[in-house]
Input
Amino acid sequence: MNLKDIRITVIGAGIGGLAAAYLLQQRGAQVTVLEQAEEISEVGAGLQVTPNGVAVLKAMGLGDDLAWCAQRARAVVLRHHAEGREVLRLDLDQYASDLRYYFVHRADLINLLADAVRRSGVQVRLLQKVSTVVPGPRPKIHLANGASCCADLVIGADGLHSRVRPALNPVSAPRFTGQVAWRATVPNDLDLPAEAQVFMGPGRHLVCYPLKDGSMMNLVAAQERKVWAEESWSLGDDPANLREAFASFGGVAGALLERVEEVKLWGLFRHPVAEVWGRDGVAILGDAAHPTLPFMAQGANLALEDAYALADSLERSASYEAAMVAYQVRRKSRASKVVEAATGNAWKYHLRAPLSWPAHQVLRLAGAFAPQRMVSQFDWIYRHDETAL
Output
């Protein structure tokens, strides 16, 4: 389909929305991004861009920009929570040397994408809060201020609490997983290396990795508990609550927790993958289509994959409807599989005695005798290249 002069409106200026806007503008479409915030910005937190996400950024011509603003990951290290002793080291340089894994500050990735979007000619309109979207031959967007607008195609990249998803799918109630997570950044005055370190404890775990030029550490701490927290990344909490929940964590983990001065807390909920990803001039991507738990670090990477697949499907197809079918076929099964993998991954880090000791011994043996296999067990996620399909 020739996208020249087709008018596309993307709702949401997050990672997936900005990537989709750029990719579609590059293919000749006239793209407008509607963002409800007063500026394109992001909360102060880190994320991991794994090789499948790197492939999309490279295809966008942004691979070198990513490398400049991120830390290249050298290893993933699993550790015991109390003493910090090493249980398993997955050496990415040695056993995945052809791949690139990066730790990046979310704000830096957003800025990188926003700059590319502006350079490409995409119109970005801020303070545009969407209330509803009506699918149809000319889908209509209703704004909270009473205004409305139309486009040839509307793309919902508006995240977990999407206003676009209900235009395509019945509303479904999320299910609390029995887990909450804290997110914080602290100075890297311990001079920790460019590794993702996972401290495994009973019913909880802590992940840390460096950001920026290595001067900052990103912390994500997950705990099993019955009391739920609001499903929001912006809900503040007292650092003392985090330290109390992880009081048994010593060594480097304990030292990092002592440095936390400001922390965000959110509840982890399961949402079903959307049944319908696009029809009648409306499509959804990223968390709007498939919210995922953070335990495989794939939220941003899946959004980048979606953005590329949607743009590519539109360019290859003869009509909007054919493109929507191709897009959903291309993405739904993969996203569902990754979401399930993330859902099932947390318990491995949360084992309690007496199971934790033998499980850690098995990990040590596997790391000693089959390190390549341990690194490659998730190749189906990380070696996937959406741009090569």
